């Protein structure tokens, strides 16, 4: 059983004080920093580019888990990795048939690679890459905004993904993203997930350290 890790999403942080935000997250026990990159085209919202990754890199030793919600991510992966990204995840819905090539590009540039699927995308869409990813990110909301409601049926995909990984790629992580909270985290962990992204639940808490610890315990 892989140990449970918490990856707070800085989408919910104060963008005018992002360096302080990641320092606070590290002190509060976060395991990774989840960086939601949005281009206003693949998803309706716009957030930040690789310069944000470059600047927060100076403020934390935690792995930077960069979630690219952008069209044609292959154009940008090198910039994010040079800026300090440790993990780069790209959407099946953005890459299509080139997903395997983009994942291999990320690995060739020295970062860990992950495939992402939206709530309405079947796991079968990424069967062809599960043997060679470091992570599968299963969206439990439709990407674009924090604070949305968790979509429970996606847990069928996390269970199946964990079972496939255990057979063919046991070191790979299953990450979930969107609507994670103290009420659903136990069921999420029981469904094969070992990395939980949480934005609002962490940043709206008046006890960040306690909330991260409770998410890690699964309650
Ligand atoms: C949504 C982002 C998620 C989201 C998580 O597109 O990918 O990372 O910010 O935030 P919460 O936990 O607030 O749903
Ligand atoms: Zn995300």
UniProtKB/TrEMBL annotation:
It catalyses: D-ribulose 5-phosphate = D-xylulose 5-phosphate. The active site is at 36 (proton acceptor), 177 (proton donor). CDD domains: RPE (cd00429). It comes from the Bacteria. Substrate binds at residues 9, 67, 144-147, 177-179. The keyword Hydrolase does not apply. Keywords: Carbohydrate metabolism, Cobalt, Isomerase, Manganese, Metal-binding, Zinc. Coiled coil: none annotated. Binds 1 divalent metal cation per subunit. Its cofactor is Mn(2+); a divalent metal cation; Co(2+); Fe(2+). It is an enzyme of class 5 (isomerase). One of its GO terms (biological process) is pentose-phosphate shunt. Belongs to the ribulose-phosphate 3-epimerase family. This is Ribulose-phosphate 3-epimerase. It comes from Candidatus Borkfalkia ceftriaxoniphila.
């Amino acid at each position: 059983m892989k140990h449970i890790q918490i990856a707070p999403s800085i989408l919910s942080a104060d963008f005018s004080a992002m360096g302080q935000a990641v320092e606070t997250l590290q002190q509060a026990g976060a395991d990774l920093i989840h960086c939601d990159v949005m281009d206003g085209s693949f998803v309706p919202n716009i957030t930040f580019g690789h310069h944000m990754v470059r600047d927060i890199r100076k403020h934390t030793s935690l792995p930077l888990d960069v979630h690219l919600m952008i069209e044609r991510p292959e154009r940008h992966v090198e910039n994010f990795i040079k800026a300090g990204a440790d993990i780069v995840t790209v959407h099946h819905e953005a890459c299509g048939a080139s997903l395997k090539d983009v994942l291999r590009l990320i690995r060739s540039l020295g970062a860990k690679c992950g495939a992402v699927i939206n709530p309405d995308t079947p796991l079968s869409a990424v069967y062809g890459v599960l043997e060679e990813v470091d992570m599968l990110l299963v969206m439990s909301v439709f990407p674009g905004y924090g604070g949305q409601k968790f979509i429970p049926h996606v847990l069928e995909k996390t269970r199946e993904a964990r079972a496939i990984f255990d057979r063919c790629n046991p070191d790979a992580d299953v990450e979930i993203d969107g609507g994670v909270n103290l009420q659903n985290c136990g069921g999420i962990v029981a469904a094969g997930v070992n990395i939980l992204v949480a934005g609002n639940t962490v940043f709206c808490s008046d006890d960040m350290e306690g909330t991260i610890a409770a998410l890690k315990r699964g309650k």
